[in-house]
Amino acid sequence: MSDTQQQIGTRIEFRNISKVFSNNKKSVTTAVDDVSMTVEPGEVLGVIGYSGAGKSTLVRLINGLDSATSGELLLDGVDVVGKSEAQLRKIRSRVGMIFQQFNLFNSRTAAGNIEYPLKLAGVAKEERRRRVDELLQFVGLGDKGRNFPEQLSGGQKQRVGIARALATNPSLLLADESTSALDPETTQEVLSLLRKVNRELGITIVVITHEMEVVRSIADKVAVMEAGRVVEYGSVYEVFSAPKTTVAQRFVATALRNTPDMVETDDLLAHEGRLFTVELSEDSGFFGAAAAAREGGVKINIVHGGVTTLQQQSFGKMTVRLNGPDTAIEQFYQTLAVTTDIKEIIR
């Protein structure tokens, strides 16, 4: 596409950013609490947390819809904190927004919705038409330009929303729960389009979500928020393979499913033998320990597990049932405990 082409994405720097809300009764709520992190140009950052964690407030700070109480928030070196509305309008012209409920004008066609920000920007009519046609093709809706929102599926509406967000050639895209109103299959289609936007156009993307599967599918880095703070931050591989906080562990468990849940655990414990969950990696030593255990008369059955590849690295967990002499089983456990994470499942 002539206009929609590879560009340099926005660099975002959060420097001790906090946002405090107060009401007339003088009660205070800290929605964002001393956040510091950097998103490099062209990266996709997933911000995840439960309701009330501060995710949406963080997005509103980026585009200046809320102003930080303290700290600095730099977009390509320009601090948006304390800027006037006129200055913020100029900054927002390089920022596209995608919303949970699409926020389309029901009285305008798909093409009309995409054209709207171009009209506001004063783009000439012929150029607007050409740009809208380009964007409809880019998001896979080349034949839907004349359709009104009520004639489109949820996934198609979100594609229109993405095209509208791209209309003015932003270098930063903010997606606030942009897939939570969609079914799983449509969610994957929209995430695939966002990956296309990032890879082909070079746009920096910040995705706000409460679904770890969304982070797994699209993000380079992930920030886990709880009570306004970023409690864990790193590459998707780092956080998924070794979550350190309880909240991150809970989110990761929903996406990976490589350990048995409560019902499965009860079923597994109903059978004879001892159950162990073992972390799998290239140097875990599992197969050597298993071979030695078999020589000692232990029978090993794999009863649950899963391996995941993220950012060209693989990791996973496996649950095994061991039946046999206690001494040989204990040796298996002690051998693996030296090199890898192994836990016995007990009632």
Automatic annotation (TrEMBL):
GO terms for biological process, alphabetical: amino acid transport
EC category: hydrolase
Sorted UniProt keywords: Amino-acid transport, ATP-binding, Cell membrane, Hydrolase, Membrane, Nucleotide-binding, Translocase, Transport
Top-level taxon of the source organism: Bacteria
GO cellular component, one term: plasma membrane
SMART domains, alphabetized: AAA, NIL
PROSITE patterns referenced in this protein's UniProt entry, alphabetically: ABC_TRANSPORTER_1, ABC_TRANSPORTER_2
EC number, as in UniProt: 3.6.3.-
Residue ranges constituting the ABC transporter domain according to the UniProt record: 12-252
Gene Ontology terms, MF aspect: ATP binding; ATP hydrolysis activity
Functional description taken from the UniProt entry: Part of the ABC transporter FtsEX involved in cellular division. Has ATPase activity.
Family classification: Belongs to the ABC transporter superfamily.
Subunit structure: Homodimer. Forms a membrane-associated complex with FtsX.
Protein name: Methionine import ATP-binding protein MetN 2
